Amino acid sequence: MAESEICIRERASAMLIHPDYQGRVTEDWFNADSWGDQARVVSSGGRGGAWFLKAGDDRLVLREYRRGGLVAKVSLDAYLYTGESEVRSFAEFRLLNQLVSLDLPVPRPVAAWYRKLSPIQYRAAIIIEQLEDTVPLAELIQTIDEVSWASLGSTIRRFHDAGVRHADLNCFNVLVRGGEFFLIDFDKGAISQPDSDPGWKSQNLSRLRRSLVKVNAGESASLNQGWQAFLAGYGRSN
Fold first, then answer.
1. 140: Cβ contacts below 8 Å, ≥ 6 apart
2. Predicted structure pTM score
3. 117 and 211 within one domain
């Protein structure tokens, strides 16, 4: 087991806890109702199921794993269990620990949890540290300058150079604080091997570009100029 995690098991459930939070996190932490007025719903992006938490002096985010699309009509939060190493909350917790060790701008993981609903199904949730005083890029598309766009491009390049593949790189999963940029929500993310298909990087950038256009309600001169600055910061000429 990695030094950056502590595993606790109780019947059908299990938790990974960062050592900094040892002795504090309980299974109740993953139930938003148990927080009372210390929990506040996250209103932007995602599929719901996320809350800002106040745990003493700590500011955290609780996120339940929820399905989208047609499959959500069958089961909103149950996933196929194929072994603990494949549990989504555990995988994201461990990936975030890796990214923190690489000094990449991501939130630190606090704890991950899952409970088996049956031999083949489970529910899961994760708690991370809140990146305070940040705003989603989606809210700033028309206001950030070209220097900031270039800084974002260089930030994404750092992730790509480290082989970090974000499964849903969109403008809600990029947070901004002054001139700093952070990536969040690494569900289904991975660190790719050096000899893997290089096309995923271009696909990643295209996904981000599409989300910007969608939130911006179409193309605009300022968005196009910003994107060119982004590509310059990333180190691409087109």
1. 176
2. 0.92
3. no
Residue 168 bears catalytic tag: yes
Identify the residue whose tokens are 């929990």. 39
Number of domains in the chain: 2
The greatest distance separating any two alpha carbons of the chain, rounded to the nearest whole angstrom, comes to: 57
Per-residue pLDDT of the chain (238 residues; tens, 9 = 90+): 457 899 999 889 999 999 999 999 999 999 999 999 999 999 876 666 899 999 999 999 999 999 865 444 456 789 999 999 999 999 999 999 999 999 999 999 999 999 999 999 999 999 999 999 999 999 999 999 999 999 999 999 999 999 999 999 999 999 999 999 999 999 999 999 876 777 999 999 999 999 999 999 999 999 999 999 999 999 975 4
Dihedral of CA 102/103/107/109: which sign? positive
* Paired strand residues for 48: 46
- Tell me the residue range of the domain where 188 lies: 135-234
80 and 165 co-located in one domain: no
Which of 95, 129, 163 terminates a domain? The answer is: 129
The verdict on residue 51 lying in a domain is yes
Cβ neighbors of 145 (< 8 A, separation 6 or more) are none
Show the beta-strand stretches assigned E in the chain: 6-10, 13-17, 39-41, 50-55, 58-64, 79-80, 109-118, 121-129, 135-136, 164-165, 174-177, 180-183, 190-191
CATH of the domain at 157: 1.10.510.10
Active-site entry in 58, 77, 168, 187? 168
